[in-house]
């Protein structure tokens, strides 16, 4: 897979239809159909963290776990970068300029508004993913790698 042990990542995933999910202490949240970008970090064993997010069956520990277990949610791409944890929040701030934040999601250990954003630029999922990738490259993750890309993006 990759040789990075520490770093930050952006998990892009699609929500196939409007859903309501109970997310731990955040309670019940609505998620519109579309593309979302979640920013996370792993300062130990980045590969294992990313693989955990790509698997459906898991123990719910982080906010993102509650959402990813939903049958209408599927990973699209994972971008990663060798970086220290503070860069996770810098990337989240950059994504807040192009996405709609899900307030308090994934940021209980920092002062950010959110670490999850709905990327609303197109009704076409492929175009939205391309827009996200261009934005990451231009604004905050110039030297990122892509560790996962789904070949089954549906363009409905």
Question: Can you describe this structure?
Answer:
- This protein has a 6-stranded antiparallel β-sheet, with helices on both faces.
- The longest helix is centred in the last third of the chain and has 16 residues, at 125-140.
- The N and C termini lie far apart (30 Å).
- Residues 152-156 have low confidence and may be disordered.
- It is globular and about 35 Å long.
- The protein has 4 helices and 8 strands.
- It has one domain (7-149).
- α3 (86-95) crosses α4.
- A hairpin with a 5-residue loop joins β2 (19-22) and β3.
- It is 26% helix and 30% strand.
- With 156 residues, it is α+β, with helices and mostly antiparallel strands.
Strand content: 25-35%
**Reading side by side through the largest sheet, how are the strands ordered?**
6-7-4-1-5-8
Reported for the largest beta sheet, the result is:
6 strands, antiparallel
- Shape, per Cα inertia axes: globular
Structural class: alpha+beta
Task: Average the pLDDT over all residues and give the rounded result.
Answer: 84
Order of helices and strands, N to C? EEEEHHEHEEHE
Rounded to an integer, what's the Rg over CA atoms? 14 Å
Please report the total strand number as a whole number: 8
Task: Flag low-confidence runs.
Answer: 152-156
User: What is the tally of helical segments?
Assistant: 4
Count of structural domains: 1
């Amino acid at each position: 897979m990759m040789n990075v042990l520490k770093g930050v990542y952006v998990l892009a995933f699609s929500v196939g239809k409007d859903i309501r999910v109970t997310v731990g202490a955040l309670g019940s949240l609505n998620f519109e159909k579309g593309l979302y970008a979640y920013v996370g970090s792993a300062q130990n064993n980045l590969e294992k963290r990313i693989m955990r997010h790509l698997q459906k069956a898991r123990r719910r520990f982080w906010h993102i776990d509650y959402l990813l277990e939903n049958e209408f949610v599927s990973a699209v791409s994972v971008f990663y970068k060798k970086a220290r944890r503070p860069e996770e929040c810098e990337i989240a701030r950059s994504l807040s300029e192009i996405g709609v934040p899900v307030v308090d999601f994934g940021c209980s250990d920092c002062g950010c508004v959110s670490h999850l954003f709905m990327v609303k630029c197109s009704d076409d999922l492929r175009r939205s993913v391309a827009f996200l990738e261009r934005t990451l490259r231009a604004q905050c993750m110039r030297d990122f790698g892509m560790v996962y890309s789904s070949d089954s993006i549906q363009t409905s």
